[in-house]
Amino acid sequence: MNRKKKPLLQQVVVEDYAAEGKALSKIDGKVIFIEGAVPGDVVDVQLSKSKKEWGEGKAVHFHSFSPDRVTPFCEHFGVCGGCKWQMLPYEKQLQYKQNEVVQNLKRIGKVQLPAIQPIIGCTETARYRNKLEFTFSNRRYLLPNEIAAAKDAAIDQENALGFHVPRLFDKVIDINTCHLMAEPVNAIKNTIRAYAKENNLTFYDIRFHHGWLRTLIVRVATTGEVMVNVCFGYDDEKERVRLFDHLLKQVPGITTLLYTINPKKNDTIYDLEPKAYHGKGYIIEKLEKLQFKIGPKSFFQTNTRQGERLYQVTRELACLTGNETVYDLYCGTGSIGLFVSDKAKKIIGVETVQEAITDAWENAALNNIEHAKFFAGDVIDVCTSEFFQEHGKPDVVITDPPRAGMHEKLVRKILETSAPLVVYVSCNPATQARDLNLLDEKYEVTHVQPVDMFPHTHHIENVVQLKLRG
After folding, report:
1. Per-residue pLDDT reduced to its tens digit, 404-418
2. What is the DSSP letter of 316?
């Protein structure tokens, strides 16, 4: 009988970090991306993928540890898919993120660059998120030591409430304490799980699509308001009322409690209608003096404090005097446009998601901002020559696209309109660099400011100012 051979182990010294938070080294001149290691570690790597010029593998044995390593603060580190850089000091994380921005802009952008500013780090490196989503599952992920201890004995499947295991769609890690968000997030999660287990409430089975409890979404604002949305596979009013009354009694800090009935095979709620059981159905968040209404389906920067700093950088680089027409492309709920509005003559926001545009109009009204207008539709379809003619030629374009970057047609439209100044906010410096290469036809990069929004992860934001040549 043929048995599949395990990939050979190779001993390497980890040299550096690559994009996506993976360490890298070389074996026989081939670049190897290594999971679970940091620069300075000496490890045995088990290769899982081997191409002509590169490979992927996992550190399975450590001969010696890097002097830069620190002890991770979370009990779920190494199993949970988040916070993969906890074993690195935060100063080192910022160093590698800065380097990633520099390398992407130089290697992919291939444009002339000014001196890149030092990255702006977070003052709070834990409990910085304002939103988390947990999953209920009747298939708890079993840790390797649990399986080893059981040997050949059968292990009963257990219910879990936590995060999906990376690359395993039907397994969920049972999370006791998550350090990404301030309390009462853990109190809410643990109270619901304990009550559900005590009362034999069914956790969702993602393989066969049955069960009552599906997902739990918690938002905590800097104003102190707390929103909880529990998603159910079907409605059971009697059990729902009992669960919610118990939760509100145990965690009285909840200001808004909602529920969403989701009979679909996916967990998205954007085509569903959350209903309020307790409270006004939304919370209020603040950025500087502005208020923002956050509903259960609203998009908002998930790190409020650092999001405020990101918007301050954007406003500074927009160089507004009060006379400019500003186009806010991929505007979401209008947060950037509204944030800079007191220094602009007119704000025009464009966003694909209709619900986000509805929120943008409400947020403008909430802050008595009358010189901002918002339009729903694909940016490349909305931003026609006729649209610019109707609403005014842009003096400043602020663009904050998704990770895929801007559509090439939009880049061409920006080139065509020849706005004097463009501020490009990006959550993916690689696609940003690609777009800068196209914009180089008419624009020069005049300022680059990296901003770290998510400590202990490889994710990074980067803000670039471009000025029209001549």
Report:
1. 999 999 999 999 999
2. H
Q: Is 35 annotated as a binding residue?
A: no
Whether 351 has a binding-site annotation, put simply, is: yes
Residue 400 annotated in ligand binding: yes
Is residue 83 annotated as part of the catalytic site, yes or no? no
Q: What gap in Å lies between CA 181 and CA 218, rounded to an integer?
A: 9
At the fourth CATH level, the homologous superfamily of domain 1-69 is Nucleic acid-binding proteins (2.40.50.140)
CATH class held by domain 131-287 = mainly beta
Residue 120 DSSP class: B
Domain with CATH 2.40.50.1070 in the chain: 131-287
Query: Which strand ranges, in their side-by-side order, compose the sheet holding 168-174?
Result: 168-174, 160-165, 131-137, 213-220, 226-232, 256-261, 275-278
pLDDT per residue over 202-226, tens digit each? 999 999 999 999 999 999 999 999 9
Total-model pTM = 0.92
Domain with CATH 3.40.50.150 in the chain: 93-124+303-468
Q: Which CATH number fits domain 93-124+303-468: 3.20.20.70, 3.40.710.10, 2.40.50.150, 3.40.50.150?
A: 3.40.50.150
- Annotation-wise, does 10 bind a ligand? no
Query: Which one of the listed residues 74, 83, 319, 427 is annotated catalytic?
Result: 427
Place of tokens 């003559």: 345
Residue (of 370, 324, 315, 377) closest to 350 by Cα position = 377
pLDDT band at 30 (very low <50, low <70, confident <90, very high): confident
Closest CA to 206 of 259, 260, 272, 136: 136
**φ, ψ (nearest 5 deg) of residue 193:** -65, -45
Task: Give 334-355 pLDDT, tens digit per residue.
Answer: 999 999 999 999 999 999 989 8
> How does pLDDT run across 362-392, given as a tens digit for each residue?
999 999 999 999 999 999 999 998 999 999 9
